[in-house]
Amino acid sequence: MKKYIVNRILSVIPVLIIVSIVVFSLLHLTPGDPAIAILGEDATQEAIDELRERMGLNDPIPVQYLNWLNDIFHGDFGTSTASSGEAVTSMIASHFIPTLQLAIYSTIVTVLLAVPLGMLAARKRGTVVDHGVTVLALCGISLPSFLFGLGMMMLFAVKLRWVPVSGYKAMSAGLGAHFRTMIIPAVSLGFMHSAFMMRMTRASMLEVLNSDYIKMAKSKGVKELWLVAKHALRNSLVTLVTVIGQGFIGALSGATIVESMFGIPGMGSLVVNSIGRRDFQVIQAVVLLIAVINVVMNLVIDILYGIVDPRIRLS
Amino acid sequence: MRKFWKRLVPVLVTAAMVMTGCGGGSSAPAATTGSTGSDAATAATAAAVSYRDTINIAVQQEAPSLDLHKNSSLVARTMCRGTVWEQLVTLNGSGEAVPELCESVETNADSSEFIFHLRKGVLFHDGSEMTSADVVASMNRWIEGFSTAKSLAGDARFEAVDDYTCKITLANPCVTFLSVIAGSAQPAAITTEEACANEDENGFLKEYIGTGPYKFVEWELNQYILLEKFADYVPYGDPDAEMDGWAGYKHAYTEKLYFWYVQDATTRAAGLQTGQYDCIEGVSSDNYDMVANTDGIKIEQYQGGTVALVFNKKEGVASNEYFRQAVNAATDCEQLLRAVYGNFYDLGSCYMDDAQAFWVTDAGAENYNKRDVAKAKELLEKAGYNGETFRILTSNGAAAQQGMLVWQEQLKEAGINSELLIFDWATFTQYRTDPSAFDVYYTSFASVPVPSLKLYFGPTYPGWSADETLQKYVTTFNTSATLDEAKASWETLQGYSWEYLPLINVGHYLSTMGYQDYVEGLNFYSGMYYWNARIPE
To answer: What residue in A sits closest to B68 (Cα-Cα)?
Structure first.
């Protein structure tokens, strides 16, 4: 197992180098002068030139890349042009927690909705229950998350006044207050992801339920619940772990719309707002971090494969 | 299976510990209540009434920076001008420059020298007293960063005469110089000499220290900016009088102003409906009915600026004056404005907005919004137009794209073959500096107090209005010795501009704000200001 993990980690290193080059190139080779974008069209040419110099934009691109990489290895992601020169590292640290929380809550919602309903649909294949679950999944896949979120906001915040329209409270402000701000965004995001997972659970369960060993277990008189929960679910876990992992990655890196809509100060809204503020150091660092999270999460999923299904690590 | 869960449980526990352990930091403050006594002489009323200690305001954009010397963003200046930072002079309701941090201004006969006599005893938020050294450092930093101020000042800079007097002597007369200080998009904020020298690695102010009634407390990025009442604020003006524009007595009845950053227009509108926010900026036309039909909510609109189609006069098909006139004759401004702004627009040929009443003129109006396809075709013939592609550059806002599609149809009817080039804002700003990349670009310009701040008259500004006659009129305007002379030359300049057409001034866009009817004392002058805003308990 150790060898398997070490091999997987080593294989990530070249990927990370390529990711850093792509992220840096994307921002630096696209048109648009960051200094003009930050200072605005009323700025003097001298002020623009000075900012370019301070940001190191006058150096050749390879030199800029190596300087950036060097700074990153020293834990320095640069300084934001907003908020009296706050270090990008501290900005990322403060914005990562709400995103992580949202990702975990939405994943819990996803799993709680998708796994039981997917299993139920598989067991009741071809019945009204199966069709009902399919319709629910189709709604989840078809509805854009912002529209579903907006509907939830109008119902629970505007009509019923159970939760605030937007904003975020940390856990330190009290669990009740915290969850009042997070529940609707988590459900909005979780419902979207659960739709796909519901379908995958159903398909995967059906495949397993039709296998010989399940038939054998049935003939031996194993109880229905035990049969599904222990024998069938365990064997469909490889597929489910992939889908849960992808959903989690999506929630970590792609919750931009939900975060913006509900005022959650997470990574998604940080990158969108930084684009609005033309805060290039932050954009660069956050995009890199999101890419790294994707790579690392895929690594974790690969390792989980090995744990769930020993045949994978042996091969 | 048991082994799997044994491994998974510690991972989940660790994740939960990380979340709870690091979850501090930002917490959204509730609109707590408390009472504020009266600050000054409306005391008779104010002492009897107590006010909520917090006003929650939702804004649509986060500022690139709060360093106003190096930033012209609307949100930064509506949040901070006159609130955190004050200026030597500010604008009254008629758009005139009047003293704010100075007691008086002496101007010589030809408006080339300005001597500012500062108010004594004015305190900065760090407790130090304002002197001419602070003013000189601030004003010169502002000139260095602001293109219009630098072009008007040339090599001239502010200098101290004594501790409470400073002056600037310009090489050329400039009767509008005080108005530029009072109301430019890049505000001439006064901070301390030390703060001016204390810059971060990008060259922006590290500390936000002003003399205004509210001091900067905290900026939680992506969440809010908190301003708190400055107890030692030294007000000016008559405490019993209403504010006149941005000038007058600021009571600061409310202890805390929270400016929440809420990007989504529907979320802002919903927050106003539920009372989570007391005031919101940027009500969209889509949400207008929803907000306006809610009991207890008021709406305020003002002309936020002008909408413009700026021609490339340097090269390409639009460098031909007849062609530009043909495009103007083919344009229906109302259709275009409706496509972009819904009902939030005013038609009008004047380059200046309502708030600058002194400068409003109808010179050149005979050439505005007179769609005449036959005339357009005639002018195209005169221009020798042979179906060359007319490239329209715009940024990627959905509304702007809609407007440009409508305009393309109008141009097509007149026989003009056009192509739409749509880019993100940063690319758009880069491309419009390249004369070979476009023939016209669509943009909007925020309100400015004087015509000399209209950037598109500059020969080096994208669009390149280098025409000799136009530049002669610009110089005459900028060097006018009296306001009456300046007004007359402005009328001549605008009249000529509607013939030469460096741009088509399509009309005015309206900025829309909503607020709860229980909020008193809001100041509406080219924006919504909170110096005297209060919510009775």
So the answer is: A39
Give the residue-averaged pLDDT of A280-309. Answer: 81
Contacts of B186 in chain A (CB under 8 A): 40, 42-43
Query: Least CB-CB distance to B146: which of A44, A86, A178?
Result: A44
8 Å CB contact between A197 and A244? yes
Compute the count of residue pairs across chains A and B with CB atoms less than 8 Å apart. Answer: 212
pLDDT value for A207:
85
**Displacement of CA A195 from its chain's centroid (Å):** 16
DSSP conformation class of A85 = G
Chain A residue with minimal CA distance to B265?
A261
> Which chain A residue is nearest to residue B22, measuring alpha carbons?
A97
> Do B105 and B89 meet the contact criterion of CB atoms below 8 Å apart?
yes
Question: Rounded to an integer, what distance in angstroms lies between the CA atom of residue B521 and that of residue B530?
Answer: 8
Q: Residues 6 or more apart from B181 whose CB is under 8 A from it?
A: B87, B88, B89, B97, B139, B149, B188
Angstrom distance (rounded) from CA B326 to CA B187: 39
Choose the CATH number for A93-314 among 3.20.20.140, 2.40.160.20, 3.40.50.300, 1.10.3720.10: 1.10.3720.10
Query: B426–A33: do the CB atoms touch at under 8 Å?
Result: yes
Compute the nearest-CA separation of A210 from chain B (Å): 21
The domain made up of B303-511 has a fold known as Dipeptide-binding Protein; domain 3 (3.10.105)
Residues 6 or more apart whose CB falls under 8 angstroms from that of A229 comprise: none
Q: Give the C-alpha separation, B492 to B364, whole Å.
A: 9
Tell me which residue of B168, B141, B167 sits closest to B153, measured CA to CA.
B168
Contact state of A157 with B270 under an 8 Å Cβ cutoff: yes
Q: Which residues of B105-140 are buried (b: 16+ CB within 10 A; e: fewer)?
A: beeeeebbebbbbbbeebebbeeeebbbebbbbbbb
Contacts of A31 in chain B (CB under 8 A): 423, 426-427, 430-431
**Domain segments of chain A as ranges:** 33-76, 93-314
Residue with tokens 């419902």: A191
Summarize pLDDT for B93-134 with one digit per residue, the tens. 888 899 999 999 999 998 999 999 999 999 999 999 999 999
Instruction: Check CB contact of B185 with chain A, cutoff 8 Å.
Output: yes
Tell whether A172 lies on the interface with B, counting CB pairs under 8 A.
Answer: yes
Predicted pLDDT of residue A313: 62
Interface of A with B in 61-100 (CB under 8 A): 79-86, 91, 93-95, 97, 100
Phi and psi at B536, nearest 5°, equal: -60, 140
> The tokens of B126 are what?
């760090």
pLDDT tens, residue by residue, B180-211: 999 988 999 999 999 999 998 888 999 999 99
Return the residue in A36, A48, A80, A83 with the most chain B beta carbons within 10 A, the one to mutate for interface testing: A83
Per-residue model confidence as pLDDT tens digits over A49-72:
998 888 888 889 899 999 988 998
> pTM surpassing 0.90?
no
- Residue B4 with chain A: CB contacts under 8 Å: 307-308
The owner of tokens 């035990």 is: A226
Q: How confident is the model at residue B6 (pLDDT cuts 50, 70, 90)?
A: very low
Q: Tell me which residue has tokens 């500059």.
A: B458
Q: How confident is the model at residue A25 (pLDDT cuts 50, 70, 90)?
A: confident
Q: Do A100 and B266 touch (CB under 8 A)?
A: no
C-beta atoms surrounding A190 within 10 Å: 27
User: Which of A34, A47, A169 has its CB closest to that of B145?
Assistant: A47
Cα B18 to Cα A101, A305, B23: the distances in Å are 10, 25, 8
* Averaged pLDDT for residues A77-95: 81
| Separation CA B238–CA B502 (nearest Å) | 45
* E strand map for B349-424: 390-395, 418-423
Residue B47's pLDDT is 56
Sign, CA dihedral A47-A49-A50-A54, equals: positive
